[in-house]
Design brief:
- The protein is mostly beta strands and about 350 residues long.
- Helix content is about 5%, strand content about 45%.
- It has a single domain, classed as Distorted Sandwich (Beta-galactosidase, Chain A, domain 5), CATH 2.70.98.10.
- The chain has 3 helices and 30 strands.
- The structure holds alpha-L-fucopyranose.
- The site of alpha-L-fucopyranose has 9 residues, from β25 and β28.
C-alpha cells in the first residue's frame, strides 16, 4: 500500500492538500483537507477497468463555490433544523439559517468549508488519514468548544472505513455524516436510476414540504420505500407517492435501519458489475437521490444532472432536537461521540 500527499489549492492564504491512498489491488481513495472531502474513489468493474465512483472536482474553486456538498464531512449537525433554534438546560441557542428559514448541514462555513489538520498513519495492510479540527465555542451557533476527528482508512479488502470522534467542553449537539454521491457506473457514465438498492429498513420518516421530518414514521410495506428485497432507484423517481414527489422526484428521506454492521445497505450497478456494501453503527441513513442537483455546471467534464449520484448519509435522524421520539443527538460535556461507517467495494 502507499499514500501520497500533494498541493491541491489555496484559500485565505492557506494551502489545501490532497491525499491519495492506494491499496495492493489498485483501489484508490483521494481526499482533501478542505472539508475532509472525498474527491475520488477508483475501483474496478467486472472486466478490471478502474474508474471513479463518486462525484467530485479537480479544483478547489469548484468545491468552494458549489453548494452540493460533494464528498464532504457534514457537521456539526447533518440535515435540516427548523426552527433554527434549540434549548439546552434552559439556555436558548440560535442557529444561522442558510436555506430559507432552515439551518442546513451545520450552517454556513461549517465543517465542509474549513481546512482540517491531518496526520497519516501507515500500516502494512491499512493506511489512515486522520483529520482533526477544533471548532470554537459558539461556532455556527453551537455551544461548546469541540475537538473533532474524522479518519479515512483504506485496507487491502477494498474497504473504506470512516470514523468520527468528538468531545465538547459544554453540553451540545453533534451528528456528523459524509456526503459522498456514489455513482457505480464509473466516471459518471450513467445516472443512478438503474442502480439497485437493498436496505434493511422497515420504516422511514415522513417529510413535510420543507423536507423536514414531521416526526411521523411510515411503514415501507407496499411502497416505493420498501428496499428490503432490492429495488431500482428509478421506481421512486417515477412514482406518484406523495413522499417521492415532494422531494422533487425520488428520495431525500431518513430510513431507520433494522440492523447495524450486517450488510444493511447494498448498492449495485449490474452493467459495470460494481457493488457497494455499507455497514454502520448509526441508527439511520438519509437516502438522497440528488433530486436537486443542478444542471448548470460540469463535473470533471460530465454535464451535471439530477440523479447523477446517490448519497447514503449514515447518521442520526435530522431535526432530532425538535422531536422527542427520535434518537437524541445531545452530547454531554466531555462525553465521547463516536461513529463509524464502512464502505466495502465488491463485484456482483
Ligand atoms: C442532502 C439532502 C438535502 C440537500 C443536500 C445537498 O443531504 O437532504 O435535501 O439537498 O443534501
Amino acid at each position: 500500500m502507499n499514500v501520497t500527499k500533494s498541493y491541491f489549492g489555496e484559500i485565505h492564504e492557506q494551502t489545501v492538500h490532497s491525499f491519495t491512498i492506494r491499496n495492493n489491488h489498485g483501489m484508490e481513495v483521494t481526499c482533501i483537507d478542505f472539508g475532509c472531502t472525498i474527491t475520488k474513489i477508483l475501483v474496478p468493474d467486472q472486466v478490471g477497468t478502474f474508474e471513479n465512483v463518486v462525484l467530485g472536482f479537480d479544483t478547489l474553486d469548484e468545491y468552494v463555490n458549489n453548494s452540493s456538498y460533494f464528498g464532504s464531512v457534514i457537521g456539526r449537525v447533518a440535515g435540516r433544523i427548523h426552527p433554527p433554534t434549540f434549548d439546552l438546560d434552559g439556555v436558548t441557542y440560535d442557529l444561522p439559517p442558510n436555506e430559507g428559514d432552515n439551518h442546513l448541514h451545520g450552517g454556513p462555513n461549517s465543517f465542509h468549508q474549513v481546512i482540517w489538520d491531518s496526520i497519516i498513519e501507515e500500516d502494512s495492510d491499512e493506511i489512515k488519514i486522520k483529520f482533526s479540527h477544533l471548532s470554537p465555542d459558539g461556532a455556527c451557533g453551537y455551544p461548546g468548544e469541540l475537538k473533532v476527528t474524522v479518519t479515512y482508512s483504506l485496507n487491502n479488502k477494498n474497504e473504506l472505513l470512516i470514523t468520527y470522534q468528538g468531545t465538547a467542553e459544554k453540553k451540545t449537539l453533534l451528528n456528523i455524516a459524509n456526503h459522498s454521491y456514489f455513482n457505480l457506473s464509473g466516471d459518471g457514465k450513467r445516472t443512478i436510476l438503474d442502480h439497485e438498492l437493498t436496505m434493511k429498513s422497515d420504516r422511514f420518516l415522513e417529510l413535510d414540504a420543507s423536507l423536514l421530518p414531521t416526526g411521523a414514521y411510515i411503514d415501507v410495506e407496499n411502497t416505493t420505500f420498501d428496499f428490503r428485497d432490492g429495488k431500482k432507484i428509478r421506481e421512486g423517481v417515477q412514482s406518484n407517492h406523495i413522499q417521492n414527489q415532494l422531494v422533487g422526484g425520488g428520495y431525500d428521506h431518513p430510513f431507520l435501519l433494522n440492523a447495524n454492521n450486517q450488510e444493511e445497505i447494498c448498492l449495485v450497478d449490474s452493467i459495470s458489475g460494481r457493488k457497494l456494501i455499507v455497514e454502520t453503527d448509526q441508527p439511520s441513513v438519509v437516502l438522497y437521490s440528488a433530486n436537486m442537483l443542478e444542471s448548470n455546471f460540469q463535473i470533471r467534464g460530465v454535464p451535471s444532472q439530477k440523479h447523477l449520484g446517490v448519497c447514503l448519509e449514515t447518521q442520526y435522524p435530522p431535526n432530532a432536537i425538535h422531536h422527542q421520539d427520535l434518537p437524541s443527538i445531545v452530547l454531554d460535556k466531555n462525553e465521547v461521540y463516536q461513529s463509524r461507517t464502512r464502505f466495502k467495494f465488491l463485484l456482483v
